[in-house]
Amino acid sequence: MDNDRKATALKQLQGHIWKDAYESGAVKGHVYDDVRPAMERWVADGIQVRIYSSGSVAAQKLLFKHSENGDMTKLLSGHYDTRIGGKMEAASYRRIAEEAMTKPNSILFLSDRIEECEAARAAGLMVVVSIRPGNADIPSDRLNAFESITSFDQLVLTPVDGEPTTKTAKTAADDHGSTADAGAKGSSDTA
Questions:
Q1: What is the pLDDT of residue 50?
Q2: Is there a smaller number of Cβ atoms within 10 Å at the N or the C end of the chain?
Q3: Which pTM was predicted?
Q4: Residue 123: Cβ within 10 Å count
Q5: Is residue 38 within a helix (H) or strand (E), and if so which, with residue range?
Q6: What range does the record give for the signal peptide (predicted)?
Q7: How many domains does the structure of the chain reveal?
Q8: Contacts 24+ apart (CB under 8 A), 127-134
């Protein structure tokens, strides 16, 4: 685990180890302050939010149930982990679309890992890179191929004609591309 390996068995073991710590209150799941209000807006607008993480589904549920911002599990419509496939494989994102019973191009995927973003785009998903403090730097030539945000407040999802659409609000700090318009159901592992 020190090497942040993405092996499913290690992630499942990690979930079991953390269970007692979360349930006792000794550990709280870190979620950026802008995430919960954004998720609440999206869910109120009928947009499903799903999580695809290298962490096991059990670990995801613990993190969101015992987050610093309270229990967020009711805001989530689904959880996916590496049992669906590797996060750098386009086939994994197509399987998520199948399980969500929607077309890949109706899913917005948010991540801080450019390799995951590239795989999701190859599968036909809409993609926005989430840039957060402490995350690894992304080479500008690869980052410029995507919309990017530094806060979920910049991401506006609104239903239009029964289909959700997405727009990223430009800020002075965001010079990585133009505003995106397309359908979205929501999938993120960068909360």
A1: 97
A2: N
A3: 0.78
A4: 21
A5: helix 35-44
A6: none
A7: 1
A8: 128/155, 128/166, 128/168, 128/180, 129/176, 130/188, 130/190, 132/32, 132/190
